[in-house]
Design brief:
Chain lengths: 129, 367
């Protein structure tokens, strides 16, 4: 299980990487593994507002649909257009090529309330997986 | 999860690292590595499936044919010994208790292969209908394992293990017997993937050895173990109905667009005959069609279909098709909207995505 340090994680298995005013958002390696082959990603578009903890889109594997929650609040600055043709990037490279959106943060300190990599590793282990 | 039923291959699946799920009360592998890879593996090379959970019901005796005819939508009198056909196990309303494969083993012996989760219900229905017939019915499911090998390389892999049978000379939907691991086995050229291949019937205790042998011998041909996830997407591309999704005890044979397994000209009464004669005369009001989504999105079982702002039907099966690489499915639509080319919409979580009816099947293998 790959859980890079330097990122913040949610209980619903999304990650956010905060750099200044911008937060890059994706799903964790654990999440992509649980979902299986991802074949469709529906994400908010630039200009849309997003709220921490609220649903911002969906990720679909061959078998199932899963909600995608936003770890942070703000306005979408950029959407990863490559995912329209290559949703499998979420499986292959969840922390880099598989990023989903970049958010202009309304409060850069908001993400501090999320789990760090150690806490998330413990959370995943304790949730019985 | 402790009380789930297990096939004789359960330990094999776990040793292969399969993701296991509860499938109608059975602890079954949904995937080993990836549904996409397993699906493509079956379409382009070969896949190995544990289908031991399927139900096997024997009908034997002087009036075995009469009982099968009473139960089935198809005309079993037309079967030769060694031949198999697809059929509906019908209610009095012409709907499906189940769908099944009918194998004619001898003039007085038939083997019905039915869906795992329906086996007990089906057997009770067969027993109930058997009253008055000089025929014995047996539920052999607990003592019968089944392994399917499917795909363009399937026969190449299986043939060397069965030296006394010529597997290529057996026609599709016929069976033969061959010596496999030292014992005669029933080998049926059938499947649920849209590919060529065989389904092998054998006692549960013998199944693990055959499973391992096939995986080993098939490796050089690119054989992969394939789970229920791929089985579902494969059968959907091939437009083969799934009981509980596309057909059930509220859908008739005609509505399911399975007129080719309905033989109203066969002799004698059969369950559902009156209802189906009436529906045929009046025309079925709805029909199970194949469709593709023309907008982005993935259709799923249970989503509603709309036309002209009105709800007109529902999706029975839908997926992002792994081989055809597009979102597609099957759905019930009113007869007047069932022609290929007709546009309608699928309600995907509140958004109406454009769809169009297409000819069946979505996928047909090159012969």
């Amino acid at each position: 299980m790959n859980i890079p340090s330097g990122l913040k994680y949610t209980k619903t298995h999304e990650w956010v990487k905060v750099e200044g005013n911008t937060g890059t958002v994706g799903v964790s390696d654990f999440a992509q593994h649980e979902l299986g082959d991802i074949v469709f990603v529906e994400a908010p578009q630039p200009g849309d507002s997003v709220t921490a903890g609220a649903q911002m889109g969906t990720v679909e594997s061959v078998k199932a649909v899963s909600e995608l929650n936003c770890p942070v609040s703000g306005t979408v600055a950029e959407t990863n257009e490559a995912l329209a043709d290559h949703p499998e990037y979420l499986n292959q490279d969840p922390y880099s090529a598989g990023w989903i959106i970049k958010v202009t943060l309304s409060d850069p300190k908001e993400a501090e309330g999320l789990m760090d990599s150690q806490a998330y590793a413990k959370y995943v282990a304790e949730s019985g997986h | 999860m402790e009380n789930l039923k297990k096939t004789p291959l359960n330990a094999e699946h776990r040793a292969l690292g399969a993701k296991m799920v509860d499938f109608g009360g059975w602890d079954m592998p949904v995937q080993y590595t990836s549904i996409l890879d397993e699906h493509i593996g079956v379409r382009t090379r070969a896949g190995l499936f544990d289908v031991s959970h399927m139900g096997e019901i024997w009908v034997e005796g002087p009036q075995a044919l009469g009982l099968v005819q009473r139960l089935s939508s198809n005309d079993a009198a037309k079967l030769a010994v060694g031949q198999i056909h697809y059929a509906g196990l019908l209610t009095e309303n012409g709907c499906f208790v189940d769908d099944m494969l009918v194998h004619k083993m001898a003039d007085d012996r038939y083997l019905l292969v039915v869906n795992a989760s329906n086996t007990d219900k089906d057997f009770a229905w067969v027993q109930k209908n058997a009253k008055g017939f000089d025929a014995k019915v047996t539920n052999a499911s607990p003592v019968t394992a089944q392994i399917a090998i499917q795909g363009p390389k399937a026969i190449e892999i299986l043939q060397p293990l069965v030296p006394d049978a010529d597997l290529l000379s057996v026609k599709y939907y016929w069976f033969t017997y061959g010596t496999l691991l030292g014992e005669k086995r029933l080998l049926a050229r059938t499947g649920y993937t849209g590919e060529d291949g065989y389904e092998v019937y054998l006692p549960p205790a013998k199944a693990p050895e055959l499973w391992r042998l096939l995986l080993e011998k098939g490796k050089a041909h690119g054989l992969v173990p394939a789970g229920l996830g791929a089985r579902d997407t494969l059968r959907l591309e091939a437009c083969m109905a799934l009981y509980g999704n596309d057909i059930d005890d509220t859908t008739t044979v005609l509505e399911a667009d399975l007129g080719w397994i309905l033989k109203l000209n066969k002799e004698g009464h059969f369950n559902g005959r009156e209802a189906l004669e009436k529906q045929k005369a009046e025309g079925a009001k709805r029909k199970l069609v194949a469709f593709e989504l023309t907008d982005r999105g993935i259709p799923r079982h249970g989503m509603d279909c709309y036309s002209g702002g009105a709800k007109v039907g529902h999706v029975t099966s839908g997926t992002q098709a792994p081989y055809l690489k597009k979102p597609l499915g099957m759905c019930y639509l009113p007869a007047e909207l069932s022609k290929p080319g007709t546009s309608f919409e699928v309600d995907i979580r509140g958004k109406h995505a454009a769809a169009k009816v297409v000819p069946k099947p979505h996928y047909k293998r090159a012969k």
